[in-house]
Amino acid sequence: MGKNLIWKEIDLIVEFLHSLERRIPEEALRLPVLPASTPATPKPVFK
């Protein structure tokens, strides 16, 4: 990378990389329950 890192930064990077190996919590995988659309529900604007 061409950049000198202090040990604390290296520890944070290693901690982040280890977090990618962990199991995703079940509640994070559930889709949210959205309210039903009504005639008053704004329509999306596509640009």
Please explain how this structure is put together.
- The protein is mainly alpha-helical and 47 residues long.
- The chain is 36% helix and 0% strand.
- The chain has two helices and no strands.
- The mean pLDDT is 92.
The main sheet comes to: none
Span between termini: 38 Å
Low-confidence stretches: none
Outline, from the CA principal axes? elongated
Q: What is the C-alpha radius of gyration, as a whole number of Å?
A: 21 Å
State the total count of DSSP E strands: 0
Query: How many helices in DSSP terms?
Result: 2
Helix/strand class: mainly alpha
Helical fraction: 25-40%
Range of strand content: under 5%
Helix/strand order:
HH
Mean pLDDT: 92
Compact description:
The chain is an all-alpha fold. The protein is built from 2 helices and no strands. The relative contact order is 0.08.
